[in-house]
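[stage:ingest] chain + small molecule (protoporphyrin IX containing FE)
[stage:ingest] validated
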Amino acid sequence: MTPQPAILLPPLAVGQVLTLRLTAAQQAKPLLRAFACLPIDDSLVVGFGWHFVQAVSGNVPGLRGFPAMTLPESAGGAAVPATQADIWVYMRAAEAGAALDRVLALMRLLPGGLTIVEDVATFTYRGGRDLSGYEDGTENPLGTAADAAAIIPNGPLAGGSFVAAQRWVHDLSALAAMPRKEQDAIVGRDRDSNEELASAPTTAHVKRTAQESFDPPAFMLRRSMPYGGAREQGLYFVAYGADLDRFEGVMRRMAGQDDGVVDALFRFSRPATGGYYWCPALKDGKLDLVPMVGAGGVDAMPDVAV
Ligand code: HEM
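[stage:predict] done
[stage:export] tokens:
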């Protein structure tokens, strides 16, 4: 019933996100055993995609593949791609070296049969801003509200969480070329004061995503972080939820699937990846995989240190 602690903790200075895909279905069971004996502390979150669950003959109600979306033509051919992988690992650390040490130790521990689809180094930018300069995370639920938004409250999966992970690629030059007022109107907030604009248009990101405006309310816990360098920059978007419907409802509205109104964010950013993962609860400091595969599905294994 204990959530993976890093889900509820704010990002540190750096992060590293791995998305992994199974190359051989017969490796799924050895991988399951390796993950079952991995101690999970406050620097690591592990999630499993539906294909991995299938490969171990398991079942996780509410987990599904990430849905691709096609935006209305007015959005210039933008799309929301699905790049569903099998395992998602998020490391948070105070310095990049520590994150890398942990990632390498984890990779050494895992048996073969996995390919690294993505390996993204993320970082905190100017105290928690997106690279566009806007503060990110202001309307995140706090305390018990954060638990309620992110953690599955009851049933066999209680204490677990679902995560939507999406890498967005920014066009910061396109944003910089716009007058400041237009930039603020895209987000719906004043970049300096972080105040919500009274006159924000319906296309503004905070209007499209206002969590209480959904039925039921779409509260989620966002733990996104910037990534990139000289060539490419963007946001590695991460949202934990007690179910996937809340993220999907917001994403659908952003993509104009409900009313044809596309989120103005698409004027300077596009998603390049998208996946859904189940992040199991912990039992005795390790991933409780019993809800997925049943009590007989995970053999007892010795402790390992990462
Ligand atoms: C390029 C990608 C994105 C950027 C740069 C971005 C940035 C922001 C910023 C600056 C805010 C306002 C401050 C805050 O409350 O955090 C915000 C709010 C929010 N964003 Fe995003 N966001 C992105 C993608 C997404 C996606 C994909 C979703 C979910 C599908 C999402 C969901 C939300 C929600 C729920 C809020 C709070 C709305 C409210 O209740 O006021 N964002 N985002």
